[in-house]
Amino acid sequence: MRTYSIGEAAKALNLTPYTLRYYDKEGLLPRIERTSGGIRSFKESDLEALKIIECLKKTGMPIKEIKTFIDWCSDGDDSLRQRYDMFQERKAVVQAQMQELLNTMSVIEHKCEYYQTALNAGTEAVHKHTHAKETSPA
Fold it and tell me: Do residues 86 and 130 both lie within one domain?
């Protein structure tokens, strides 16, 4: 079974060794093995767990809540409902973030079209004939 040093694991996940040490300190990596000299050794399963941690972080989940999830994983089947519910909640959070990004993109696309039309015409005045004058910042 292949093992990875902290540097190799960090590189594979596009993280820093500092981040992995922090996760370990916060209790997010309870299964990380150490050599007799205290050096962390990462297995494939550790890398997979770290991918889930990073996924949860990207949803805005605080480290404390990620730690709760990690603890639930250690509980085995007794925590299946909590883990399922947590991912359902994260799914709703991400869906809301996606909708917000779509709304933002819509505004950006409108402004791109607005300015492309103005550039093509050589003036913003072209919009006075087709739209009410823009009142938002240029």
Answer: yes
